[in-house]
Amino acid sequence: MKKSILSKLSYSVVSATLLAGLLSGCGAKGTGGTGDVIKIGVNLELSGAVASYGQSIAEGIDLGVEEINKNGGVDGKKIELIKIDNKSDAAEATNAAIKLTSQDKVTAIIGAATSGNTKAQVQIASDNKTVLLTPSGTSTDLTGTDGSVLDYIFRTCFIDPFQGSVAANFAATKLNVKKAAIFGDSANDYAKGLATSFKETFAAAGGTIVAEEAYASKDTDFRATLTRIKAANPEFVFIPGYYEEVGLIIKQAREMGITVPFMGGDGWDSPKLVELAGADALNNTFITNHYSSGDPDEKIQKFVTAFKGKFNDKSPDAFNALGYDSIYLLSDSIKRAGSTDGEKIKDAMAQTKDLALISGTFKFDEMHNPIKTATVLEYKDGKQVFNTKVNP
Amino acid sequence: MDWLQQLINGISLGSIYALIALGYTMVYGIIRLINFAHGDVFMIGSFVGFYAITGLGLSIIPALILAMAVCALLGVVIERIAYKRLRNASRIAALITAIGVSLLIEYGTIYFRGAQLEVFPSALPTKSFNLWGATISVQSILILSISVVLMIILQIVVRRTKVGKAMRAVSHDVEAARLMGINVDRTISATFAIGSALAGAAGVIFGIYYTKIEPLMGVIPGLKAFVAAVLGGIGIIPGAAIGGLVLGLVETLVSALGYSNWRDAAAFIILILILIFKPSGILGKNSREKV
């Protein structure tokens, strides 16, 4: 299976390279920087399984480019987007990256929405010294592993474990709790990552973990474990996991008289959560997320109004915001680099500092993961309400 | 009063296992078939209850009765179509057919309505009260009473009625029962109907108690109920009730001690141990195999 995918991949890589070579041979225009435009490649899931992510990001990018070009572009040059649909497929994403780097000779690439399709472009982007910026690929190893960073790869979203430390800080500083319990999915990397970082940050903030329990996905009866948690008397329960189980946990916990605040990450974010747990049980629970359209911040409200104006009164979601931020992040780096040379742009991007955008104020750590504010939402009568912003 | 709370948790869980296990054990007792489709009849019961409450606007008791009726019918249909013609075939053929029926129901349901989960409406008040420090929800009391009432009715049917007498006779010796003028086919159908109705009731109760229902929800409770039936002594009706309760309590105990990841493993370790040391189960008498 693996072999056949690999051979299929290498076949398409070879054929795409040949094709790209042929086409660029006919009419090479030089690099994306020459002339009056800066070409930015957009390699997104515009169709296929996760099309809704890709389309949302593309809308955000479109709005951003429109604004930037209206305000004079980047150093007097307009941004020109070259969008390719990778059809939610890794091999297609690789092909698109090859076309963008060798044929269109773009200055940088934004994409893809998922970690897998971003990974499929990492090699091509690195080989061509082209900055690759993923708006929403959260997998930790995308930008490098074991402390060795991939120079040209960046991301706009925060990584999963980050949400755990945000939750811990929120619990310790805003809710002023000292004793927390963790109840997480035992077999899920997302939940484990969140739990580990929560534990570390909460301990560093002077809190103690009084109970640490686990469940398996597809479980339906959590009462026995919840009784244990109740006996440990926590002031706060952190539940990293997905809405299917979390909904039942919250419902059963409230029935058993556990009234303390609960908190989780973006895995909770589904309308089904409200149905499963019930709006009453969800009161006094919190989630971390990339952004909230209900944030009173002036910059964010301006973005919400602009977005609604362009897209038929549609309220922008987190993916819209991340797409919008990606294009601004990139144009800021190009401006500071003063050049469309990939090497200079990646250095400039790595040094991004105090860049206030929609999903937070940006700065990158040495692994190219953004250190930025996260938004905390509170459930009130089944609705997500903006609560506060927390620094990691 | 943690132990009291855990005891209540265990009994609530156990009574659902017990209701499903009753159907397993009745069918096994009468035709020596482990009806693996039983867990899926339970799932269908849950969905019938769900649609009865949300679609037809019924209240809880009529929805329960409707689910039981639909499941009874389904049980009879399954028996007539799939198992009847295999009555004289080898046991393994019947067992494989049962697995086939199970998959057919699961994926048939997914085909017709998709695999997405559904949220069971809370048809009962969600109030709870305190008893010596333990929190007991009104729901779990009602669930427990429905389970107990159904088990008592079953006991009366099996012990006091003509159908029950016929069932016991067929389970004892099919040929002799036939010679005595008992309509064996009809008795077997009645057994399937009663067992499936109980599974349907368990489905509705499960929906109320655990909220989330989906097409593959019957798999794990079905297997657990099978363990419960074996634990109590397969083919013995009170054994299924006892096995279900014991299993619910053991699982709760394992979680209560902080080994929640081992909870499912514990159920199947019990199955292995009972098969090694006392294959006839808690209430079973050692019977010599006739050659």
Automatic annotation (TrEMBL), chain A:
Residues 1-20 form the signal peptide. Residues 38-382 form the Leucine-binding protein domain. PROSITE patterns: PROKAR_LIPOPROTEIN. GO terms for biological process: amino acid transport. The keyword Metal-binding does not apply. It comes from the Bacteria. The keyword Membrane does not apply. CDD domains: PBP1_ABC_LivK_ligand_binding-like. InterPro entries: BCAA_transport, Leu-bd, Leu_Ile_Val-bd, Peripla_BP_I. Keywords: Amino-acid transport, Signal, Transport. Gene3D superfamilies: 3.40.50.2300. SUPFAM superfamilies: Periplasmic binding protein-like I. Belongs to the leucine-binding protein family. PANTHER family: LEUCINE-SPECIFIC-BINDING PROTEIN, PERIPLASMIC BINDING PROTEIN OF ABC TRANSPORTER FOR NATURAL AMINO ACIDS. This is Ethanolamine utilization protein EutJ. It comes from Paenibacillus montanisoli.
TrEMBL record, chain B:
Pfam families: BPD_transp_2. The chain crosses the membrane at residues 7-31, 51-78, 90-112, 132-158, 188-210, 265-284. It comes from the Bacteria. The keyword Ubl conjugation does not apply. GO terms for cellular component: plasma membrane. It is found in: Cell membrane. GO terms for biological process: D-alanine transmembrane transport; L-alanine transport; L-isoleucine import across plasma membrane. Keywords: Amino-acid transport, Cell inner membrane, Cell membrane, Membrane, Transmembrane, Transmembrane helix, Transport. InterPro entries: ABC_transp_permease, BCAA_transport_permease. GO terms for molecular function: L-isoleucine transmembrane transporter activity; L-leucine transmembrane transporter activity; L-phenylalanine transmembrane transporter activity; L-valine transmembrane transporter activity. It is a multi-pass membrane protein. Its main location: membrane. Belongs to the binding-protein-dependent transport system permease family. LivHM subfamily. This is Branched-chain amino acid ABC transporter permease. It comes from Paenibacillus montanisoli.
